[in-house]
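Thread title: Can someone regenerate the structure for this chain?

I was given the following input by a collaborator and told the matching structure tokens would be attached. They weren't. Posting the sequence so someone can regenerate them.
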Amino acid sequence: MLAYTFRRFMSMLFTLFIIATLTFFLVHALPGGPYKNPEKLTPEIKQLFDRKYGLDKPVAVQYVMYLKNLFQGNLGYSFKYENQTVEEIIARSFPVSAQIGLQALLVGLPVGLLFGILAALNRARVLDYGLVFLAVLGVSIPSFVLAGFLQYIFGVRLRVLPVALWGGFEYSILPTLSLAVGVVALVTRLMRTSMLDVLGADFLRTAVAKGLSRKTVIWRHALRNALLPIVTIFGVLVVDLITGSIIIEQIFSVPGIGQHYVTSINNNDYTLVMGLTIFYSLLFVLAIFLTDIAYGLVDPRIRIVGRKE
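Best answer:
Regenerated them for you:
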């Protein structure tokens, strides 16, 4: 198990290195420069700024400095937000995105599991068709359309919730619902398919033949095995939600990571683009790493296959 964990850990580090390298060169290949109103800068002032941010050096030297600072946990200063480090911006915006994402997960995951189980247990019935229709509808509707619809109904027509901006808990309800609908749809479809596969397995027929009640067979045996696919996507789903949705945060003017990401790209804020990309990639790759380890603990066959490779 230690060898399997070590291989997965080294693979994670190599992936992060590739992402950091590609991000650095792609950002520096963007047209334009990182300064606001560059036409107003005199050559002398621009030279001072280049020296401050290390842009006066060759790209290869900048790359080496970038990797050195990255290994030390230093993501640099933002070009747009004066005298603010990328770490400070992440520390300020990440809790906002995490709050909305975790709320969406707490709402969407239980509802999606319940809908998936009910749909599987009532296969080819009205309830099954209705829940599948809602799941397909939830996947098909773009998030920005759903967000606009919720703003119009609850913010404009009923006036019970804020349309946008960020304040107390009530400001997070509409963004949470906008994200939760997608979670419900995804989990419902995945859970229904997995549950149907398990219900048709031989070991469940054997359990029924031994005299176990339908309730015991479903909740102790079928449900436990049907949850494995959910575990597979759980880590990635959590990371995706807590790091924020770019579209949702833009629509609701939420000061989360997603909004800063869009702003940094529009402003060619090199350090902020690279810092946010590395931060998101670290969480994403770490989630995959922990999922691989969990699967290796549950199913030893995974470790055997990995050793052969």
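DSSP finds 14 helices and no strands in the chain.
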